[in-house]
């Protein structure tokens, strides 16, 4: 952690993440208004002392809506990543350890899936499963799986031929011990780092799905959906697009910068 | 004496003059002094050896002369003069003019010193075009001539090849030809033979001597190998922890070393006449016997065979029969790729093999037949101490593993036994709670040896265990191994490419060449005339180091 805070990237990422997590944890309680309350007299207003981030087309307070949307958005990113990375890592590690024909078959299938653009693939799954936040989460997780499996597998392959693994094999250790104690602890680093960076992608894809109307449904306060709903009023009050847009960007950037710093901290060669 | 060294008649012209030069690296833990007040002078036509162990700063000094400084390097004092020109504080354009035309450098590993995407000829010609202003056609001709001088039989053909199509020796010849191409006045050699096989290294060394005679170039020859330095250098400086501890004519420094550090280095050089082996075992019944062992790599699949009928497996070891007696130390020597490690891996079940392994009255026809009892009694120690210990486990955990796995001691006694094991390899007991990265290379190798002996084996296979270590550490590890062998009575299969070391340790020596066992002899018969020509060549390539005038041991 000290190494992370030593780089400017790490500090920026940590600060952004603290703000985002603060909003996600306490947002619904510190929001000044009910996110669904209409203020008919104050529609599409810019920021003012009464409405700090302005109001949308129904006169709902944007700041309150943003704060209320934070838990859903962050949870979506984390949930999708944990699911996708978890499943991907299990597949990748098993393929890497098994080697031989199993490895070849699994990896060729994943290559096939990887060949499809990420967003297109997500859309395909959502179309199958139907709209909604849960379905979108699942879709993003499935999309992440092959990439993650590749990373986990290559990490396993680089560790598998190390001499301490050979030593364990020569000792006659069980396969379970070799995977659990010799291989896994040494591949966790790259997997965690990749996962952190992926959270930002998940949030962005989630927002995109929301924007396309395939993720969260109105009157949810999910940030992507907020942008979609406000789109036609963009020229009368740009603030209703800027607010959630900036929020998505901040969260994504926070995870991204933090992930970068984490990777540098894990890599002894990058240390000065 | 140094028979290959040039006449040491002092010439007045100073090619390299380093005075009171210090350099430190700015790191997160504060500045680290890499070079401390270095002073060194090389006159025209002189070869100056710079010997030291890894981390002593010898390569840092070479890079400072060539002006390849790391971004966090800070030069704290002193000057470097090459041919009277100040290198410190020189403008970038002038440095580039100096490099290649006045000073050249030959690196350790020719495979990483050459650009894999360029033809060898293009890389050689580039220097001629840039520094001697030649036209392309003329430069190409000159390049061929330069290559021919390095003893390449068909230079025109080699020029058209890419680095991956040339052998290590050929590549190093190209690097040397490039360095000599512009008739520089100073060439820095940074361990030019370390990455090469013994026989190739010998040829490269002879080439260096011949080219030096021809051109009269001055050289700074960096090496960790004292015997080699003694043969080719006129003067030598011994560098230790960034400071030059002793400097002078080769014969003087190596025959009558004054500083304790130099004496320690000299004492650590393996000399066959100083035997440190355990007494020869009297039993003639073999402990383990390999019978007609063959190991094949890369057996092609059915689809590959269908598409390319010429696809064949590559034989790592072919029809090797070898046996080792209880308590014996059997050495296996050979160049890299000769199949030494392949045998070790087959015996420990890391490679599939054909043929039989007979141990303790039982005969194994496949590695799947090895059971826990066999695996316990045959242990292996690997070459790289950095890679053979799991970085996420403590030393205590690593040593406890074989104790628990083979139930060597009852569960309650594991901790005490780990302490005893650490004592046994002369490491402090509190190392048990440390992690591998907190230990030095020699200490890690001791832990790896302790792990092998923890299983109370009958045979320990040592796969180049000293190759990655410095000479003084190497001597200590070799002594430790012999000491453990004496105490436990275990036999040892010692794989190495260091012939002088193996003649110190082994009772018998097996010689491998291209996967085949070509010679097997008792160590006293090493100089006998009926040795295989290949054994002869290997022995001749590494002369026995001369004894210092006074006894150091």
TrEMBL record, chain A:
Keywords: Cell membrane, Membrane, Transmembrane, Transmembrane helix, Transport. GO terms for cellular component: plasma membrane. Its main location: membrane. Residues 70-259 form the ABC transmembrane type-1 domain. It comes from the Bacteria. It is found in: Cell membrane. The keyword Disulfide bond does not apply. The chain crosses the membrane at residues 12-31, 74-98, 119-144, 195-216, 237-258. It is a multi-pass membrane protein. Coiled coil: none annotated. Belongs to the binding-protein-dependent transport system permease family. This is Peptide/nickel transport system permease protein. It comes from Faunimonas pinastri.
TrEMBL record, chain B:
Transmembrane segments: none annotated. It is found in: Cell inner membrane. GO terms for biological process: peptide transport; transmembrane transport. The keyword Endoplasmic reticulum does not apply. Pfam families: ABC_tran, oligo_HPY. Residues 13-266, 288-539 form the ABC transporter domain. Keywords: ATP-binding, Nucleotide-binding, Transport. The keyword Nucleotide-binding applies. GO terms for cellular component: plasma membrane. It is a peripheral membrane protein. InterPro entries: AAA+_ATPase, ABC_transp_ATP-bind, ABC_transporter-like_ATP-bd, ABC_transporter-like_CS, Oligopep_ABC_C, P-loop_NTPase. Its main location: membrane. GO terms for molecular function: ATP binding; ATP hydrolysis activity. NCBIfam families: PRK10419.1. Belongs to the ABC transporter superfamily. This is Peptide/nickel transport system ATP-binding protein. It comes from Faunimonas pinastri.
